[in-house]
Amino acid sequence: MQNWxxxxxxxxxxxxxxxxxxxxxxxxxALVGANPFVAYxxxxxxxxxxxxxxxxxxxxxxxxxxxxLCTALPARLGLVLIGNxxxxxxxxxxxxxxxxxxxxxxxxxxxxxxxxRNGACRWGALDWCGWGATALSGGQ
Length: 140
Known about the structure:
The protein is mainly α. It has a domain at 82-140. The chain has 6 helices and no strands. It is extended and about 50 Å long.
């Protein structure tokens, strides 16, 4: 019985958080004079309107889901890892900068991949040494 109660509590908290977010979004849209239900319909159509839009939603969300998984799995073991989102951003920035600088190169994709991994690893090393997000934000 206790297991069901814990699962139900987790589900209610997740759904409640989503509903509060949608409600706040609707209030802000109404304050600026726009119809929030039109925005909800457009968001739904853009994310789940057809098979291709749903596929695009999953493709664009998968790096964030994998980053969350890289935080959640060690947390279950008692390890605290922060900075995964920063590594994702720094890796994307490194790959984008290399790809922009070497547009017409045949090795642009390989170089962008290695520069992306390099940026992500450097961010992770800064975070591991204590010079990452916490130090850069003033220690808060």
